[in-house]
Amino acid sequence: MTTDLTMLRRSIFLFLFFMASAVIAHVMTPLQVPREGGKASLAKIIPKEFGTWAADSTSAPVVVAQDVQANLDRYYSDILTRTYVGAGGQRVMVSIAYGEDQSRTNQVHKPEICYPAQGFSILSERKGYIETANGSIPVMHLATRMGRRYEPVTYWILIGNKVVRGALEQNIARISFGLDGAIPDGLLFRVSSIDQDAQRAYAQQSRFVADLLGALDPSVRARLIGSIGTVPAE
């Protein structure tokens, strides 16, 4: 009986929370938040070579079905996908997707949704951080598998100038901007590699991210990690 009452209270709370969010979204007329640092294409501002890493020019471009491409065009205005090879032959796949409108119907899709849609199973997921010279970046780690292919994934989402991870943080950030009468833009930064050892892959991906961010101009870096490293920590 106590368990049923607790679940009922929780359901009522969640219902009221989302109803309030819907009312706020309806009565407000948000304005688009301009992107600082310009809108140069990701392909131009992300270097093909930095540190000990270089883009693999032999990698074939990914070909997607027309319906999938239509969805990508709907949610994102700029997408960059590359595979980088390190000095030791290690390979890291990078996907960066930018969308100008992060309203509820157009928000970037999380890998927790995209990977299963492509046939992958999510073996585990956990929150973590990547330590860089520019600050600590909150990220999500996913261990995924499709058949014999093990693909650990690390990602974060930038909403406006705030880095978030997971659905809850993403929605809270979006609602926060909405309360200020603004529609933020958004960016998904994802790295992955083929490796049965997820912890080893996460460590390698963290080194890659730190090396990349360290090679970027501050204005370009801000397009990927927002205010991290540019304002004092609260």
UniProtKB/TrEMBL annotation:
<feature type="domain" description="Methanolan biosynthesis EpsI">
    <location>
        <begin position="14"/>
        <end position="218"/>
    </location>
</feature>
<dbReference type="InterPro" id="IPR054653">
    <property type="entry name" value="EpsI_type_B_pred"/>
</dbReference>
<protein>
    <submittedName>
        <fullName>EpsI family protein</fullName>
    </submittedName>
</protein>
<dbReference type="InterPro" id="IPR014263">
    <property type="entry name" value="Methanolan_biosynth_EpsI"/>
</dbReference>
<dbReference type="Pfam" id="PF11984">
    <property type="entry name" value="DUF3485"/>
</dbReference>
